[in-house]
Design brief:
75% helix, mainly alpha, 8 helices, 0% strand, de novo design (two linked rop proteins)
């Protein structure tokens, strides 16, 4: 009888501990992260086709292409493992490399607008549309990951589940941040006198 009461008391005590919620949210965050990686890989796979198409334009700025190629090489050279999700330094390094690739591709598209022959190239237009779609997919995947990590982190910091987090070493997970937060939080100067 005492054993039954002890088992029942232990079961009731564990009901609100959140252990299963941690497992569920950890798996959801891993799945969401996998989708982010999938979309980043999709983008990285597009880069060689874009570069090859742009290289066909004889006068195109070589420096811009070189920066895209270097940014892609850097972004794809970082090995991402499940542990990356729990290592803020590795996560930030990966995020920074992906941000550099995004910036290089954006500059490439801006520079490409100066080349009417390139703009008339159907292959380039198709690749540009595919890239824009991929960037949208990256945004959606990142948002899903951010939401899942937010749920996980709230669970890790809320009472009484924070006690379970401490016992089982469930650390809060890093989330995506804006690389130039200080710059974008400064309101733009508007001067209509010019």
């Amino acid at each position: 009888m005492k054993r039954l009461i002890a088992t029942l008391a232990a079961a009731l005590a564990l009901t609100g501990c959140g252990y299963n919620d941690f497992q569920r949210l950890d798996e959801q965050s891993k799945a969401a992260w996998s989708e982010v990686l999938n979309q980043y890989q999709r983008r990285a796979d597009l880069v060689p086709n874009i570069v090859a198409t742009v290289k066909g334009e004889a006068n195109f700025e070589q420096e811009t292409l070189t920066k895209v190629i270097e940014a892609r090489a850097k972004a794809t050279s970082i090995q991402v493992t499940p542990e990356t999700l729990n290592n803020p330094e590795a996560f930030n390094k990966f995020q920074q490399a992906q941000g550099e690739l995004s910036g290089a591709l954006s500059r490439l598209m801006v520079v490409a607008e100066r080349y009417p022959q390139l703009q008339a190239n159907q292959a380039f237009r198709d690749l540009r549309v595919t890239l824009e779609g991929t960037e949208n997919r990256i945004t959606v995947a990142r948002n899903r990951y951010i939401q899942t990590v937010q749920e996980y982190n709230v669970l890790a910091r809320s009472f009484p589940t924070n006690l379970t987090a401490k016992v089982f070493s469930y650390e809060p997970k890093p989330s995506f941040t804006v690389q130039n937060e200080a710059q974008i939080s400064t309101p733009p100067a508007v001067d209509f006198s010019k």
